[in-house]
Design brief:
alpha+beta, 2 domains, about 45% helix
Length: about 190
């Protein structure tokens, strides 16, 4: 189970921990942005019913429904954390699934960070900054907001999306769409 934001769930069994009846424990591996967390599902199953190549049970029945339900539950946790702008990691999803969730920490967004920065600059106008500098920062904040809305269809984005693709896209947007010169774009 994967999506475009680098989230996946992989089910697997551990044959080395088979019990006397030959049943093997079932695990889920949650991966978020390349970081993994493994969850013991506290269930054992007949290894003859397990298809290691697909990571799913063969056939139907209660055991198959269990795996589907776990996958859906993990994806629901991921989606809820993503929608609430909470800090997200594979370990956080594991904790939430196993009932050991830590308090939800809100992720900072790009525009919130801009606003915080601009408030700081505003408090220093006349000391370290001139009013024109504050005006420039407020203007660029508006342009970044428009870029996010245009390119991503969202009102704001988490800081974690600041990568080369975002930065180069913003640079291109400022130069082409906004008509800013190179030096203005870089400042």
């Amino acid at each position: 189970m994967k999506n475009s934001k680098s989230f996946s769930v992989l089910f697997w069994t551990n044959k080395a921990k088979a019990d006397n009846n030959g049943s093997v424990p079932l695990y889920a591996r949650v991966t978020v942005a390349g970081k993994r967390a493994e969850i013991s599902l506290k269930k054992k199953l007949n290894p003859k019913k397990w298809d290691a190549a697909t990571g799913f049970m063969k056939g139907g029945g209660e055991e198959v429904r269990l795996i589907n339900d776990v996958g859906n539950d993990l994806f629901s946790i991921y989606t809820a954390l993503d929608r609430s702008n909470a800090y997200m990691s594979a370990e956080e999803i594991k904790k939430k699934y196993t009932g050991q969730a830590s308090p939800i920490l809100k992720k900072k967004t790009i525009l919130e960070t801009f606003d915080e920065h601009n408030r700081d600059v505003e408090s220093l106008v006349g000391k370290d900054y001139v009013k024109a500098t504050l005006t420039k920062y407020k203007t660029i904040r508006g342009k970044v907001q428009t870029f996010i809305k245009t390119q991503y269809g969202k009102d704001d984005l988490q800081l974690e999306v600041l990568d080369y693709t975002f930065i180069s896209g913003l640079e291109l947007y400022l130069k082409v769409t906004e008509g800013l010169e190179h030096n203005t774009t870089m400042s």
